[in-house]
Amino acid sequence: MSVKLRQLEAFYAVGQLGSMTLAAKKLNISQPAVSRLLASYSESIEFKLFNRQNGKLVPTQDARFLLREVGRLLDSLEHIDEITHSLTSGNAGHLKIACLPGFSTSHMPRVLSEFLINRPNVTVNLEPDGANRIFEWIISEQYDCGITDVFSDHPAVECQRIPMKTVCIMSEGNTLGKKKFITPEDLINEPMIHSRRDSAFYRKLEEVFTLHNVKINSWIETRQFNSACMLVAEGRGVSIVSEMDAREYESRGLIIKAFKPIIPHTLMLVRPKHTVLSTIALEFLDFFESSLEPFRLKS
Fold this sequence. Notes:
This protein is of the alpha/beta class and 299 residues long. It folds into three domains: 5-88, Winged helix-like DNA-binding domain superfamily/Winged helix DNA-binding domain (Arc Repressor Mutant, subunit A, Orthogonal Bundle), CATH 1.10.10; 92-163 and 266-295, D-Maltodextrin-Binding Protein, domain 2 (3-Layer(aba) Sandwich); 166-263, D-Maltodextrin-Binding Protein, domain 2 (3-Layer(aba) Sandwich), CATH 3.40.190.10. It is 43% helix and 24% strand. The protein has eleven helices and 13 strands. The chain has helices spanning 5-17, 20-27, 31-45, 61-88, 101-105, 107-116, 131-139, 200-211, 225-233, 243-248, 279-291, and strands at residues 50-53, 56-59, 92-99, 121-128, 145-148, 157-164, 166-171, 181-182, 192-195, 218-222, 238-242, 254-259, 265-272. The chain has a six-stranded mixed sheet with strand order 8-12-7-11-9-10. A five-stranded mixed sheet has the order 4-3-5-13-6.
């Protein structure tokens, strides 16, 4: 037995409306076409579908039972069509995002919230972890994308490097706050809170200070810029951090000053190279990159 979708649509429409003429209008086909569809369907299932009573087509007992099942099927197909449309239009789907812990509590929540405003059917898995774990997840295609600041070239990973502005931060009352910009010489006697010594950013920082014949007055070493911002906001030392992180804590009393010479912090958006990302994942990557624009270091 071979049943066509159009046969089921004609059967259900007539069962609901009791008229081939009305069913034809609903399906936007001719009345003879509805008649042929019913006849072929009745022949394929080998029982009568309708009786005529008082000028109306009334389903037989078997047909009444079948109508309920056909109705559920057509509703399911309509729902599938709606889901497919939502997926292709970027209004539905599931996102898996891996990011550094600092991002999960600062910039990311706001960006994600804005992205989801007009996408009520999108679900998200946001997983904060270290750079090495993020790298492993992307290689194994467990996540759609990752936000990190450490990356080793790998054939299974596509990486977009984004240079970010950095600034010098200090607490209210620090005399450096009166300066237009800060240089390494200004920080000779200031206790420094800085990124880990094995990080790429610390190496850049150390190189700049060395070129100015200044030794970093190391005090606290921390992995995340947001930790440095919180410490400085509590009146502890000075730091050079991403401007994006610094602005998140500006309302807590941070003084933010330009630092010269410029030391860029490189942010990396990584994704599996051999996986075709969903529409929603591609849209999120574009949205996230746009959110970085105010803090991006222009060449």
